[in-house]
Hints:
This protein is mainly alpha-helical. It folds into 2 domains: 4-143, no CATH class; 152-319, no CATH class. It is built from 15 helices and 2 strands. It has helices spanning 4-13, 28-37, 42-53, 80-94, 96-103, 117-127, 134-143, 159-167, 181-190, 206-220, 223-238, 246-260, 277-282, 287-303, 307-315; strands at residues 19-20, 24-25. It has a two-stranded antiparallel sheet with strand order 1-2. A hairpin with a 3-residue loop joins β1 (19-20) and β2. α1 (4-13) runs parallel beside α3.
Amino acid sequence: MISDTCRSLIADSRRFSTTYGAGFFNHLPMALLALERLGGDDARLREFASFYAKRLRPQAPGESLPHGDWREALGQRRYESALAAKFDDDVRTRGATALLHDVVPHLTTGLPSEAFHGAIRVAYAVDSGDDVDVAAALASWVTGFSAFGGTGDTRFASAADAFAAIAADDRFATTIEGRSIDARLGKVNALPAFADYRSAIDHIDLSDLAMIAARIFIATGDFTALHLVTACHAVRVLTSFLGPNVFDVLANAMLAAYVAIGRPALATTIIDDGDDLASRAAMSDDDHDLKLVYCCLQEEAHYNSGLHRTAAAVRLGVR
């Protein structure tokens, strides 16, 4: 659950649009939850909300939702306000769990949409144990939805095998240019060589993908890799709602992201420094510090591998 202050600030954050500036994603509701879970008190939460809100823009009224059908809003940001209102009604009348079970399975192929941000925000809303952001989070994912599709033939026994093969595949350029994470993933997905890796893993275990994501981030500190770590956490939180092909979609997106950042060697070093990473992160005004460290500590508690704690330490510059 969350405190009254955190709940109030998240509720207030809904007056802002999902995006701002040149297509940046509004992280305020997620960062507030992360900050509280990292130990931020009421005063710190209010301070951060006031600081972060200065960059945001108000939610526009938008257009009415055609036929009251949420599917009409897929990939259509102009329906965000109307869709959030509809989902609010659904939460009140049917409950958040029923709404999530109805909608989220249909969004599974769009897991990587907007650098996974829609799925991550929904996961934070569920993780909070409170319904305050469920409707708005779902609306942000639906209206930012784009499918990351494609099928292929099974060639690899495990995710580790697929990543090792693509790391050695010289058909791919050193890096893939693009204006956004989405654009770069789309470019990789469209490459003829990537057809050999799309949906090509026989057995995908989420824990394997989570460890690979952490190892990529430890090796690089890369911004795209950061989103792979938080995406794996989001999938773990939302597994009971997502469609049965979710691990396949996640693996495809992770492989594409790995190509986009240059297929670096995966890290093996684990940092065990004893620092209080939660307290250190809670002092930061960087939304990605807050979100990544919170997710990493949650993943570390679940997997106990040392890798996620190390990833958090890398982000905070603790070496």
